[in-house]
Amino acid sequence: MKxxxxxxxxxxxxxxxxxxxxxxxxxxxxxAIRSAAVQRERLREYIRRELSNDALAAxxxxxxxTVEKVTAFESWCxxxxxxxxxxxDLFAA
Length: 93
Prior knowledge:
Blueprint: H1 3-9, H2 27-51, H3 53-60, H4 64-71
């Protein structure tokens, strides 16, 4: 075996993943972690696209600062609590 071939194949038979004695995760757990990370990124993108202050302002035809004031109870403070009627909210009670 020449040096170039050795360097290419040197790690080919090394134990990896669950084969290591100190491994804490299984292959299924790693897959679940990666799946959760992808779901988290999709959720972040959905929030950025649909639920951000800019998106809400565009949806209701107001300025972004108006949405900020409403959510901080600086304006419309007499209206209490989240909407409970079926408006398509993800977390409506």
